[in-house]
Hints:
The protein is α+β, with helices and mostly antiparallel strands. It has helices at residues 5-14, 28-42, 70-80, 142-148, 166-175, 180-199, 236-239, 249-256, 275-287, 304-315, 334-348, 364-372, 384-395, and strands at 22-25, 47-51, 64-67, 84-85, 95-96, 100-104, 115-124, 129-135, 153-157, 202-212, 218-220, 224-227, 260-263, 268-272, 294-297, 322-329, 355-361, 378-381. The chain is 37% helix and 24% strand.
Amino acid sequence: xxxxxxxxxxxxxxxxxxxxxxxxxxxxxxxxxxxxxxxxxxxxxxxxxxxxxxxxxxxxxxxxxxxxxxxxxxxxxxxxxxxxxxxxxxxxxxxxxxxxxxxxxxxxxxxxxxxxxxxxxxxxxxxxxxxxxxxxxxxxxxxxxxxxxxxxxxxxxxxxxxxxxxxxxxxxxxxxxxxxxxxxxxxxxxxxxxxxxxxxxxxxxxxxxxxxxxxxxxxxxxxxxxxxxxxxxxxxxxxxxxxxxxxxxxxxxxxxxxxxxxxxxxxxxxxxxxxxxxxxxxxxxxxxxxxxxxxxxxxxxxxxxxxxxxxxxxxxxxxxxxxxxxxxxxxxxxxxxxxxxxxxxxxxxxxxxxxxxxxxxxxxxxxxxxxxxxxxxxxxxxxxxxxxxxxxxxxx
Length: 396
Ligand code: GDP
Ligand code: MN
């Protein structure tokens, strides 16, 4: 589960990580009130207006703007709220902005130049350990840094038995070229950032940029936080931060029905039981010249009701030109799945895409008879290849 920048920053701050302070606003008037309050609390003269959507690269897309007066705050917040923000990480349609973060300007002039760094905390799956990844090249696309100047990206792995050790935090500060007060600030920053990551059961923190201000403070200017869904049961307060407006509506609905569904760009809808079979089915569709429109695992207990629910979800996608149902009947009997497909088909009335059903396993022959004699426009198959050929047939 992803958090908004403002939520991520609040989480960091609660663990003692210094952040660029801000207040979230739902409309232009609230933004002005927030700006006034921030000026009182921080003394800031200027403000940054930042679109709150689950996508990075907002600055490039025009979703982060500097306001030098309260009039600016009002105008910019008014422009950004309601816009469909297109960034390198969104689709071409962009993401609708519902709220902005009004933040203090932290790039103020002073004794030294502000510096931007990159820092993330994540799991290194090949070693099974958390690591801190960091770079002097902050504020820019880290993928680009990795490609062009990989020697400027550092990693520090953490032994789960000891946790982050003080010398490791110092090493990070050293590698980033810091000294004096900024060095000390960075060791504190890294230490509390890592604590926040572990205690919130996160799977990713990406802070880009981490800023060294002109007066040697180290703070998080941005915060991308991904929480581990499997640990949300022990973080009820964090689970409440979910913003379903940021998620695919079909995926949200599928989730409520207990279906494991991922929306994809292709034209062949698939309904499968078991993640492995689902992956194989997607390969099969590709081989047959199609592109999967979704990943859908109806689970081990693919009863009639679940089949019907899955059917409805797949048909919500307007790009679907054919549906391949590929079910292995182990615990669930194929004839019950077939009856589910037939019932769902009849309940839905007008389905104008061809459907190919491959049922294999317990009672597969009974299931095939049911489908073939249903009088519905459904093609049945028992072999994998046969199903692929039929997909190819209906697509061409
Ligand atoms: P992203 O584009 O979605 O990654 O959003 P960020 O939160 O990283 O902000 C984008 C850029 O806005 C940063 O890299 C900064 O250069 C700029 N920015 C953020 N906060 C401030 C600020 O307080 N003052 C100024 N002048 N620029 C800021
Ligand atoms: Mn950023």
